[in-house]
Amino acid sequence: MKTYLDCFPCFLNQALRAGRIATDDEKKIKKVLDEVGMMLSNIPLESTPPETGRLIYHKVSEITGNLDPYREIKSESTQKALSLYPSLKSHVEESNDRLLTAIRIAIAGNVIDFGANWDFDLNAEVAEVLEKDFAVCDYNKFKDCLDEAHEILYIGDNAGECVFDRILIEEMYKPVTYVVRDVPVINDATYEDAVQAGIDKVATILSSGTDAPGTILQTCTSEFKKVYDNSKCIISKGQGNYEALSNERRPIFFLLKTKCRVIANDIGVDEGDIVLKAKQRSARK
Q: What does pLDDT average to over the chain?
């Protein structure tokens, strides 16, 4: 997805939020804003938002000296999600369509996003998404892809959300490779976060190699790109991964809640909608 003009104030808001979490020193936070502001003047609209996000969070770490400001927040959100795990499993087991309910639950977990949404009620979000109609629902295409694929590549998003992803992984009955960020960035999931959520019990965990808040392929490892290129069914969670991969012609299914107007408009839905969107396959695959 390209960068839109409305992305620029959001970039500054992200820098301010991350700066305040990283330090109490207002002079350092002001320096973050000053340097990010100057940097934004050179950002082309053709770049993806995660490419800019990567530069912003590098700058926050560089100026504040805090390499993982969201560490405690990530752990707390995972613990909260784990406390909901038994009830989430019950929702799946009691439903008429276990797979579709698990997809809804995975999307509900996408609310745990401190880059886009600071104020959320996790319990209320789960209840809402379980009842909400999909704005885009390529469920039949997803089931066909799942049936045809020998294994699944699942690109994760946020810590805490991993617990909700685990619910879906447990309903797919296929080998899954679960992809995490290489190093901390916002509250995106790293290897340690995925293990805390129990993903290692249901999937193979693989780092993409990127330090961006989205899967920017140019910054990923050759190991990840080989798995990605050979995958016949890819699940991409969240807004950052949508922003980075929406122009890719691969068998990708985007699972997310639209938490900003720009992304909602890009998809063609309303802000706050839930989406299971299939991306067109490349002709060579």
A: 94
